[in-house]
From TrEMBL:
PANTHER family, alphabetized: 2',3'-CYCLIC-NUCLEOTIDE 2'-PHOSPHODIESTERASE_3'-NUCLEOTIDASE (PTHR11575:SF6), 5'-NUCLEOTIDASE-RELATED (PTHR11575)
Residue span(s) of domain 5'-Nucleotidase C-terminal: 323-479
Organism of provenance: Levilactobacillus suantsaii
GO MF terms held by the record: hydrolase activity; nucleotide binding
Name of the protein: Bifunctional metallophosphatase/5'-nucleotidase
One annotated GO biological process: nucleotide catabolic process
Length: 517
């Protein structure tokens, strides 16, 4: 009998250090440096086992550390590959956010790696020198293990086209169906490493999201015979178990956990399996890895505390996130103001991405901005109809649910199985009212533009981030074929440019959104 151990991380998003960067002293129970300590222990725990360590993507974007490297010190990008090399990762997969800074930066982040990048369902990835092969076969102690790499097919829906030139993303399920049986002819064990999640309940198969192809994990489990282990990511969920006979993990985000699957193989066949997650909360950050990155971390902290502007008027600090979404907020009004100026549009929409958003203080620093707007989103301007706008606002109104005692809460589908607070937008340029006492789909009871009711056939221009502009978040009324212009600077840069032109910005309390409950 041979034991195979599969150790995995996913969706680290540049959170090497255990901090969310809200302050220099902030400390959190996550971070890849904590995970590194745990991974070393897992790698050494069973010397008789065959052990493979894999990263499932979304590695180079997300944290303030990642933003600093991409925008201020791109020559330091090879640190990512250097860290994975030092911890003896065996392979990695591309995540959707790994494309956010374009292919040259992605290549730079891979420079010097001594592990393969696997991309079976991205045509052209090898030609662009961002991947090595569809799969890799590892042979240790007489055991042959094939690892097939897959990435969510939905990348082109969100990503700026110039960031993915020459790439074509194909169905993960269709790709796996072509490869898995072939790989069983070449190896004893076939592992699928997928930067994607699950579109249905893992036990019952009940759909948990609209079937767009973004997440195909349940179909991988049930429609692709021969998968011996499935490693997943993308949804930031914490999953470990054996589902439909296949051991499966998903280790959350920011390295909150490390996934481990154990297979026992007899006569070239898997005879038993288990899956677990190991929390990194109690782990001490790895001292060797910390030594390689601490100088960069000091530069990041100094960079974050540089002031970029000043505020007067209504406070842009966010203290009650639900209230901000229900009634609008000066911070959201300001972001929409920047969008409208940059996009020269009639209407703007933006989201309060998560409940860690703190907004802006009287003296605005880069730290505050990147905490509140962490994504390198660029903007698109679309020409839409009044009917499109109504449909989008009804989707927004479905974000809320009213409890019997009158309390307004977030609708569970925006929280489970994956938290999606970023899929509710607050609008400026229009006046609108939601009546949450009405059925979903009939909650928009007032919609005016410049004081007049919006007609169904009325043409309007709206500016939003490219994720929403391509229909992301179940907004099919927004589509690429409606885009009339693009703003190719990311939002953090646009806000900094706005402060450069307006050193003192006045906060405005919006009054254009009314909610009845």
């Amino acid at each position: 009998m041979t034991r195979l151990k599969l150790i995995s991380t996913s969706d680290v998003h540049g959170y090497l250090y255990p901090t969310n960067y809200s302050s220099p002293a902030d400390r959190r129970p996550y971070g890849w440096l904590r995970a590194a300590t745990l991974i070393r222990q897992l790698q050494q725990a069973d010397p008789d086992a065959v052990t493979l360590t894999l990263d499932l993507g979304d590695w180079i974007q997300g944290s303030s550390f990642a933003s600093y490297l991409a925008t201020q010190a791109p020559q330091q990008a090879p640190i990512y590959a250097k860290l994975l090399n030092a911890l003896h990762y065996d392979a990695s997969i591309l995540g959707n956010h790994d494309f956010n800074y374009g292919l040259p930066y992605l290549r730079a982040s891979q420079a010097g790696r001594d592990f393969p990048v696997l991309a079976a369902n991205i045509a052209g990835a090898h030609d662009q020198d961002i991947s090595d092969a569809p799969y890799q076969i590892f042979e240790q102690k007489g055991l042959k293990v094939a690892v097939l790499g897959l990435t969510t097919t939905y990348v082109p829906v969100w990503e700026v086209p110039s960031h993915i030139p020459g790439l074509n993303f194909q169905s993960a399920v269709a790709t796996a169906q072509r490869w898995v049986s072939k790989l069983h002819d070449l190896a004893d064990v076939v592992v699928v490493a997928y930067h994607g999640g699950f579109e249905a309940d893992l036990k019952t198969g009940t759909p948990t999201e609209r079937d767009t192809g973004e997440d195909e994990g349940f179909r991988l489990l049930t429609q692709v015979p021969g998968i011996d282990a499935l490693l997943t990511g993308h949804q930031h969920r914490q999953i470990a178990g054996v589902y439909h006979g296949v051991p499966t993990t998903q280790p959350g985000d920011k390295a909150v956990a490390v996934g481990e699957i154990t297979l026992e193989v007899v006569d070239h066949h898997v005879v038993s399996s288990s899956a677990t997650l190991h929390s990194t909360a109690a782990a001490v950050p790895d001292p060797l890895m910390s030594a390689q990155t601490i100088a960069l971390e000091h530069h990041v902290q100094d960079w974050l505390d540089q002031p970029i502007g000043k505020l007067t008027g209504a406070s842009m600090a966010v203290t009650d996130h639900l209230a901000a979404r229900l009634h609008g907020h000066p911070y959201l009004e300001f972001i929409n103001r920047v969008e409208m100026m940059a996009g020269h549009a009639d209407i703007a929409a933006t989201a309060l991405f998560n409940d860690d958003v703190l907004g802006l203080q009287a003296t605005v620093t880069r730290r505050q901005l990147l905490n509140s707007y962490p994504y390198p989103n660029t903007l698109v301007v679309e020409r839409i109809t009044g009917q499109d706008l109504r449909a989008a606002l009804e989707r927004c109104a479905s974000f809320f649910t009213v409890q019997p005692d009158g309390r307004v809460e977030v609708t569970p589908s925006f929280i489970h199985p994956k938290t999606q607070l970023y899929n509710y937008d607050v609008y400026d340029g229009i006046d609108y009212t939601f009546d949450l006492r009405q059925p979903v789909g009939h909650r928009l009871v007032r919609l005016r533009y410049h004081g007049d009711p919006v007609r169904a056939d009325q043409e309007l221009t709206i500016v939003m981030n490219q994720y929403r502009g391509h229909g992301g978040g179940q907004y099919p009324m927004f589509q690429a074929n409606k885009i009339i212009r693009e703003v190719n600077s990311d939002m953090a840069a646009l806000v900094q440019n706005y402060f450069h032109d307006h050193p003192v910005v006045t906060g405005i309390t919006p009054k254009n959104l009314t909610v009845h409950a």
